[in-house]
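Weekly sync notes, structure subgroup
Attendees: PM, AL, DS (notes)

Item 1: joint prediction request from the bench team. They want all two components modeled as one assembly rather than separately. Inputs as received:
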Amino acid sequence: MDLARIRNFSIIAHIDHGKSTLSDRILELTNAVEKRDMRSQYLDTMDLERERGITIKAQNVRVDWKGFTLHLIDTPGHVDFGYEVSRSLAACEGVVLVVDAAQGIEAQTLANCYLALEHNLEIVAALNKIDLPAADPDRYAQEIETVLGIPAADILRISAKTGDGVDGLLDAICERIPAPKGDPDAPLQALIFDSQYDQYRGVVSSVRVMNGRLNSKSKLLFMQAGTPQDPIEVGVRRPVPTPVDELGPGEVGYLIAGIKEVAQARSGETVTTFHGGSSEALHGYSDPKPMVFCGLFPIDGDDFELMRESLEKLKLNDASITYAPESSGALGFGFRCGFLGLLHMEIVKERLEREFNLALIATAPSVEYRVHRTNGVVELCDNPADLPQPQSIDYIEEPYFRVSIITPKEYTGTLMDLCQTRRGDMTKLEYLSPERVELHYLLPLAEVVVDFFDQMKSRTQGYASLDYELNGYQRSNLVKVDLLLNGIPADAFSTIVHRDKAFAYGNRMCEKLKELIPRQMFDVPIQAAIGGKVIARETVKAKRKDVLAKCYGGDITRKRKLLEKQKEGKKKMKSIGRVEIPGDVFISALKLDD
Amino acid sequence: MSEPFGVYLHIPFCAARCGYCAFATWTDRHHLQAQYLDALQRDILRSALPPVTSVFVGGGTPTLVDAAALIEVVRAIPTTDGAEVTIECNPDDVTLEMMHIYRAGGVNRVSLGVQSMVGHVLQSLERTHVPSNVVRAVTAIKQAGIPTFNLDLIYGGAGESLADWRTTLEQAIDLGPSHISAYALTIEAGTPLAAKPELHPDDDDLADKYELADDLLAAVGLVNYEVSNWAVPGHECRHNMLYWQQGDYRGFGSAAHSHAHGRRFWNLRTPERYIEAVDAGESTEAAGEDLDAETRRMEGLQLALRMSDGVPVEALPIDELEGLVVTDGVRVRLTRTGRLLANEVSLRLR
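Output from the run, pasted for the record:
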């Protein structure tokens, strides 16, 4: 194929700014999909993607436009999947930036644009939704010029919904985005930028050929994994998967090689030929590490094995999940799981519940701490229950995020207040336009994972947007707060918090548990403690009355049934020492505060 | 002496329904009274009862129906010598004449629905009587020569202070009853009270009032013999003991329960349908249950546990129940704290 006639691009857009709708219009305009086969959000294949309006897995599609071959590479739309985005961008020469003409650019979009600029990609900017009455394209074009240096005059104005301006956008893609470069006769170098597990075909990887030719005949080598693979099929998505003889430089398509789990064909992998292949892997491969951890426990203890199988299956398609069996005195047997971020955590939990029919309890999210022991050993700890005794700890470091928030300026105060209470350090405040501000903070990850996003949204009526990236570890004055029921630690409630917040946290949890724990036959002290030192205390007073007043002829059957019911209820209780607690108490207590 | 056997007569008529009441009773069917009493009598006669050791006429409001007609029905029941014959009475309705009729008809025990001796508490319970009616009624009972009477009390009505409850107890004691039943106000599903959570009693307050009752009643020789019942020894209600000792009894009238040889059954719920069934010569039974040996054994323990004689020592894990039970090595009995938590203890019966 003539490289000069190929254009590879991704669409960068904030959630709801219209990326999926634009993809749909492009498929229609280029006749890739017959009108009668068209469905909304064509490229979002998972139910969850459609429901949440986000793209979780990258897709790619080949379309034809006025003699050009265009590869549209659909990227995940959430910051949790930043690494996946960077791999998708590595397969492109340009991006289409889509910004809602009524809302302006958002923090993650901006971050992804910077990422595109780092990759030396051409940016074709378009203001979408110009059909909306609230659209103010002039204002937001000016804003894009200010923050990204793209001349306002070059910014296209489209409506993906009505199709207005979309043909112009396709023309601009062909005119402005450079053709790919590559040597068809050099040894093969192909980049895997996404892999998905298909239960019939095994792993299907999206690939971009950089140099050489990829066909289904030559034995392959996956360079980072170090494994030889026999290709079964090479093809392109139009969007219906269509086998081809080979993919040359600049071309984007898919590769099937009989691989059983995506961990063997991760994003960023370089594929070459086994014989006479390239000696050099492509740059930019990394192994994204989980940043957020929580315990997931089946509510029904009998579901433990089912849960293990379910996690194994999910792992086939999502190499970034980690899990290890964990047992909790309060919650029984479950798994300690690691996720790329909070959304990723939610999605995995939801998929387990939905696709595998599990009912789960999630413990409060945690991060991975570096614990420096007094004996000089440094340990990683992602589970408060595993934190060593305070006297054996020299100090603890915690991961920090560099966070940027873009907000209408009237919410600056409330957001600064939020970041302040979350132990944030402001590094910069800049005006993107007279109305909009970008705040830069360093924030402990642990403070971000606990409902920071929801707080930010509710304080700004949903107008603020957030982007973050890891910014190393910092030493912090952290302590583990344990909760004891009748003197026995309830491990599910242990949390690592900053010392200044320990007292408030302990008080709040004690009060909450006092409300939730039913009265027992004896007084139940609820204590919050750091090491052996109690910092807060409440008491659930002993139950004094549980008796039927009347028990005459007509009451006897009823009384017996009542007692049988009470007995059944007791069986469903979880016990911590002698204290019996209904399962839903844990769920309610672990729910984040409003 | 033969095995005890009791008869319960249900009178399903009331002048007004109290907000807490979940009994089968009606306020708009007074026109059925004569027919109903007639059906009761025929139902009794066709049942060819053996002589019974106790009769209990309850309701509803037995004093709402014609006293002579009611006694006609009671007399249809064959009784043993010394049988206990009780009628529940509403203080508003009691007259000396009525008590004379009852006495002449063999009634030897009256259970008076006092509930409270404090005006504002009676109002919150939606009772129609005033405390002075109670005093008048007791005088009539005594004058008519009815040898023993019970006062029914309820604690935990909305607005009742501990002092109000003490007043009720002291005034009740002053009336010289040989038996007192004191019930914690219980919220029954479907009653008007159930829909008003702001009027519901607090468990700690109920526990305080229970303890106060037990203190004051014990001090005058009324001994607790069942969770909610106190009596001068020898004056325990024999009819109620039948229920608690799994004895046999037969209920007549709408919604009345019967128990015989491990089978429990209950009658049609409305007076109309009860009358119809008797008229048609059919059974008045609505439904029933057969108790298997294990259910019967457990039920026996659950009932026995509520009584002062308790259960056999092997029926409970005594070590887990410190403060709630005492034992003499043969029987285990609830302490006062244990009586208040009888359900919890019951769950551990084995």
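Discussion: The two ends of chain A are 57 Å apart (CA to CA).
Action: AL to compare against the crosslinking data before next sync.
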